[in-house]
Amino acid sequence: MPKSNLIGAYVAAMLVMLVFTLPILWMFMGAFKTPVDIYSIPPVWWPDFSYLENFKLLLSENWQFLLNSVIITLGATVLCMVFALPCAFGLVNFQFRGNNFVADWILSTRMMPPIAAAVPLFMVFNGLGMLDSHFALILVYAGFNLPFAVWVAMSFFRNLPKEMIEAARIEGCTWFQTFWKVALPLTKSGIATVSTFVFIFAWNELLLALFLTSNEAKTFPVVISTFSTITRTYWELVSAATVIQVLPPIIFTLIMQRHIVSGLTMGAVKNG
Amino acid sequence: MGQIELQNVTKSFGPVEVIKDISLDIKEGEFVVFVGPSGCGKSTLLRMISGLEAMSGGSVSIANRDVSHAQPSDRQIAMVFQSYALFPHISVRDNVAFGLKIAGLPKTQIDAKVAKASEILGLEKLLDRKPRELSGGQQQRVAIGRAIVREPAVFLFDEPLSNLDAALRVQMRIELIKLHASLDATMIYVTHDQVEAMTMADRIVVLCDGRVEQFDTPVALYDRPQNTFVAGFIGSPKMNFVKAGPGSNGDVVLAGKVSKTLPGVNADNMTAEMTLGIRPEHISYSHDTGDWEGIVTVEEQLGSDAFLYVDVPQIGAITVRAVGERGFGRGDKIFLSFDPSRCHLFADDDQRIN
């Protein structure tokens, strides 16, 4: 490619990147602005980063909701994986009448928008006395992510060489041992990928949390939504809260990134 | 322990019957090879013995115990796969010890058994490596090591050498023969390579289209193939087939010209249309005299042997194996004669007559 074209490509890439990152940058700046700075014209381009009042105010009043988010998100991720992985392993490895149907049926539940279930879920949990509880949200988040998790897990279990599973069976493994000692260690990267997706979904979910919680189990996204009131929107708090909100997914993804690499099964079977 | 009995075993995938009523009796300590062309069902049959594939009908017993419905882990078997199927996430040592750990043996015993197996297979220096750091031959050795530590009643090999290069394959073949001699265990070995089958087996099962065509010693398969399939499959180059008909006095007539008396053939057991088989190495050839005159169309010179592809107008293309022969080239005239005592005669249903 000629050099001039290359420069053009870089400029175009920078422009596109700006479009996507500018709102995030502006939000990040906003988190360090005073209420006056937020509304001042001309805008304050470079805030004083030692001004942490927004964060202090936010965390002192809402730390328990942040904790709720952490508990519910981790709980939902773990619960979802506990069910999805054995289910996917079974659907891939057990030949039984209708296993394709079951797999398709699981996927079809994904087609329903979660909000369609909000009212029924509200009534169910209300009847069970579980409204505004951690467990209810964990259950709902895990449940809504199960189809996706099962399907992605199925694809990586399917990529495991069949002989590997058979070798484990011949060596005396029960199905559970085959799953635990062979299939899981060999699909770490896939598991990391799925759990990252489930984590991010559960962490960012707002609508169902709004429906099913009021105070005890309220999650952080719900808190952010309360900063927009009828009289004014507290942009400095929204910004600070959003900064906190986006951090865990970034950290989680960075931790998992190490595992989200393929090639773990290299050397297992001779290629070609 | 170690004998295997298959009774009326069948297998269907949907409407397709891939194994058609097979019964076999494999003795303890025997090295049996399943051989046949691709898709003949040899691997499926092995997998049914291992329990990895369910049978559609019939029964399998190993060491006098009916294991038709037993899990693979309950059959006292070990299996070596074509792809080796080593566990890539654990070391060679853990791979070899895998089955013993699953069985819950004490660590001292596991260590002793792993040490013994790795000594037999020369794996001592590789024990702490991961499978991906090994060459194909070494990986195969580890897979065999994983099989022998458990001291199973039966070893199953599913084309274990086909991923290796030619030189290594010959070496591993010899090692497997030695291993069988030293372990004295029953082994079943699947291959499509007839050289492996002939050199390794005590007895060979020749399979075609889900049926056992013949189950016999390598020499018997070569000397007395029971039908045209086995006759054509065993031996390289392939046996020559010539159309034959009955003559007078129990003679066999070829192309209406040459009539011969074959031992064990008489007017009663002949059919109207027959096939005469003669191996390339059993044809005598000459520059000037013989029953058939032909032209050499291709000469394949191997040094030790020359394969001469001869076009004989009356009976078609004939392959001749000429040991150490240098005297014939392409286009040369050649005379051929068949030794009646080395001829195989097959009836119109392809079954052996003599």
Structure report:
The complex is a heterodimer of chains A (272) and B (354). With 272 residues, chain A is mainly α. Chain A is built from twelve helices and no strands. Chain A starts with a helix and ends in a 15-residue tail after the last helix. In chain A, 32% of the residues are buried. Residues 263-272 of chain A have low confidence and may be disordered. By secondary structure, chain B is α+β, with helices and mostly antiparallel strands. Helix content of chain B is 24%, strand content 33%. Chain B is built from eight helices and 20 strands. In chain B, the strands form four sheets. A six-stranded mixed beta sheet of chain B has the order 6-7-8-3-9-10, with helices on both faces. In chain B, strands 13-12-11-14-20 form a five-stranded antiparallel beta sheet. In chain B, a hairpin with a 2-residue loop joins strand 4 and strand 5 (65-66). The two termini of chain B are 38 Å apart. The interface between A and B is medium-sized, with 24 and 32 residues.
Please give a quick description of this structure.
The complex is a heterodimer of chains A (272) and B (354). With 272 residues, chain A is mainly α.
How are the secondary structure elements laid out?
The complex is a heterodimer of chains A (272) and B (354).
Chain A: H1 3-30, H2 35-39, H3 53-93, H4 99-108, H5 118-128, H6 134-158, H7 162-170, H8 175-186, H9 188-204, H10 207-212, H11 220-226, H12 235-257
Chain B: E1 4-13, E2 16-26, E3 31-35, H1 42-50, E4 57-62, E5 65-66, E6 77-80, H2 92-102, H3 107-121, H4 136-148, E7 154-158, H5 166-183, E8 186-191, H6 194-200, E9 203-208, E10 211-216, H7 218-223, H8 228-233, E11 240-246, E12 252-254, E13 258-260, E14 274-278, E15 283-286, E16 292-301, E17 305-312, E18 316-323, E19 333-338, E20 344-346
Parallel strand pairs in B: 3-8, 3-9, 6-7, 7-8
Antiparallel strand pairs in B: 1-2, 1-4, 4-5, 9-10, 11-12, 11-14, 12-13, 14-20, 15-19, 16-17, 16-19, 17-18
